[in-house]
Amino acid sequence: MGIKNSFISTYFVVLLVAFSGCASAQNYQTRIVDGKSYYIYPVAPGNTLFAISRQFAVEVDDLVKANPGADQGLSVGQEVLVPQDAIDKKVARKSDIKTDGAYILHTVQRKETFFSLAKQYGVTVDQLSELNPEAAVSLSTGATIRIPVQQSTKVDSVFLAPAQSDTFMVHQVARGETPYSIAKKYEVQLDSLNKTNNEFPSGLRVGQWITIPKYKEAFREQLEAAQKPEMGGGVNYKEGSRNKYKLALLLPFELHQSDTINKSLSQGKDMLVLTEIALEYYRGTQIALDSLRKLGLNADVYVYDVGEDVVDAREVLRKPQMNDVDIIFGPMHKASLAVISDMTREKGTYIVSPNTFSNEVFEDNPYLFRVNASRETMLKYLANYVAINHANDNVVMVNSERSKDWPFRNLFKTYYNEAVQTYPNKYSDSLRSATKAGFSDAGISKWLRTDVKNILVVPSNELAFVSDFMTRLSRLSESKYDIQVYGLDQWLRYDNMEAAYKNRFKLRLAVPYFVDYEREAVIDFLKEYREKYEMEPSKWGYGFLGYDLTLYFGLALLEKGLSFPVNIGDNPMSGTYTNYRFGKSTTGKDFENKSVYIIEYDDYQIKRIN
Fold first, then answer.
1. I need a labelling partner for 293 at 20 to 30 A (CA). Which of 116, 157, 182, 367 fits?
2. Predicted confidence (pLDDT) per residue in 184-208, tens digit
3. Are residues 379 and 507 part of one domain?
């Protein structure tokens, strides 16, 4: 009886070992292709074909046969088929191997030494010692060491090429380089570089491959190609250059209250807000026109007072000077802009809208240029930014449950869930959504973690909800929970939100514009504005906007004439108010500026981080 039980126990242990042969493989999905079973391995940044083959105990040649073209290079997010019948079960049983980017993580078995491991993987003992200094002193069974497989001599170098992102640039670290020097080399923010690479948890090592938060040129070209207008389809953009162009500014000067304006100017009192905005925009325009004239632009500029009254807007368009105007800047009110858009569409007059309005009003006008990114574009950018930079954090969307916020919630959720397919989140494979009520003492443990940073995204511009939520959040223990909040552009206007809350939660907002007063271009503009007008631009920033837009479209006319919309993606510009990357809008025929900033409140200051 004892012998039989012993035999059964031994047989059971053998079965367990046999079926756990490739332990790590059990964590991957399986797929049947043409009757054969495969494990599905999603490629991570830096992975090599050789490292994947060692993890699953298969030959590299078997991986190439199952994945034609894999020997030409791997892409981040690519699915590699691992043939189950090619796994060497004997090798798999004796090893415990995982991949970590460009490295193999090898769990040391009995009798293994640095020398035997170096021979096994085709690297040198010195290379192992440099990567694993503590293990070099004392190598113990069960310890995990890193193998620099990109330096292996075991296989052809083509199988050692690290997986790269189709979207972002990658860089192999050279001796003497630091995160700061690399950020400077690629002209990216140091904070963005750190975040993209999870703060370099193991430091920065020579030979390491890292991701640069900057689009590859090929990917940028692909984006720009997608954004270029489709010629034909009833859209006939103007062609050729002119000796003199006609530009029109339709601004809300509110001249019908001229007595009030004159009195305010003479007595140094505050003017109407709209009047001040219009004057400031006009001043910025004048500074840009001075620069453009020196560059050779010859233009007549017509300035009209157009506010919210649609009757005034129609009257302006009936003026003889407006018959063949090339570009109209404004109006700044939604109703009058809609009238101008309808009345000029047949003529193919280009219209530049300085303000942000909803898509549905102007989506059928292929001659309209919206200066600010749409809410959809901002939410898409925000979703991708959060997925890429917070893959190792606990990400939760806070649901306001208000019907008018539903489009924002839906867009962010859709784009985020798409992004995590390429940049998997450590704690959840899809977006988790909580309500404000969930952030009470009773339910907080369901949503927040105490061991990692908690990223709370609040896709709402409802002031009452946002203010109440931030107050509720401030009651949580600062020492217990590490929290960072992301919000939308309108939060910039919420002066009643406690500055201490913004600072504590390192509040980040997705916004279409940001004036960086430390930039040289901004400093130069301010100097000229002060000298010319003996005053400062107001907090609304319309002086910067008027300057930027006049300069951007004036340069477009100088370089490409009236056909500039055809290849408008080829004309990016870094302005004082925002960057300018026009492309087709996501929902209509018109153009929109695709630039989005992520800004952060830190130490009671606002800084751009992307």
1. 367
2. 888 888 887 887 776 776 678 776 7
3. yes
Q: Residue 433 corresponds to which amino acid?
A: S
Residues 6+ apart with CB under 8 A from 578: 371, 372, 512, 513, 514, 548, 593, 595, 597
Return the top range by mean pLDDT from 126-130, 338-342, 354-358.
338-342
Minimal CA–CA distance to 207: which of 123, 107, 116?
123
Q: Compute, in degrees rounded to 10, the torsion defined by CA atoms 232, 235, 239, 245.
A: -170
Pair 156, 7 in one domain? yes
Going by the DSSP 8-state scheme, the letter that residue 545 receives in this structure is: H
Inside any domain, residue 224: no
Same domain, 88 and 64: yes
The DSSP letter of residue 24 is G
Scanning the structure block, which residue is given the tokens 């991949």? 99
User: Side chain identity at 211, as an amino acid letter?
Assistant: T
User: Residue 441 domain-assigned?
Assistant: yes
Domain boundary residue among 466, 490, 511?
Answer: 511
CATH of the domain at 284: 3.40.50.2300
pLDDT of residue 62: 92
pTM: 0.62
d(CA 413, CA 403): 15
The residue among 485, 271, 521, 515 whose CA lies nearest residue 395 is 485
Residue located via tokens 């939760």: 396
HEC profile for 336-379? Answer: HHHHHHHHHCCCCCEEEECCCCCHHHHCCCCCEEECCCCHHHHH
Q: Which residues contact 373 (CB under 8 A, 6 or more apart)?
A: 381, 512, 592, 593, 594, 595, 596
CA–CA distances in Å: residue 64 to residues 156, 231, 552: 13, 43, 50
Which of left, alpha, beta for 35 (phi over 0: left; psi -120 to 50: alpha)?
left
556 in the same domain as 440: no
Six token digits for residue 433: 């959504």
Q: Contact 384/195 with Cβ under 8 angstroms?
A: no
What tens digit of pLDDT does each residue of 231-271 get? Answer: 444 567 888 888 999 999 999 988 766 555 555 555 554 55
In this structure, what DSSP letter does residue 160 have? G
Sign of CA dihedral 50, 53, 54, 60: negative
Q: Which of 593, 571, 75, 586 is nearest to 380 (CA)?
A: 586
The one-letter amino acid at 235:
V
334 part of a folded domain:
yes
Q: Indicate if 505 and 385 belong to the same structural domain.
A: yes
- Per the structure, how many domains does the chain have? 4
Residue 302, CA atoms < 13 Å, CB-side half-sphere: 18
Residue 90 lies in a domain: yes
* 171/560 Cα distance (integer angstroms): 36
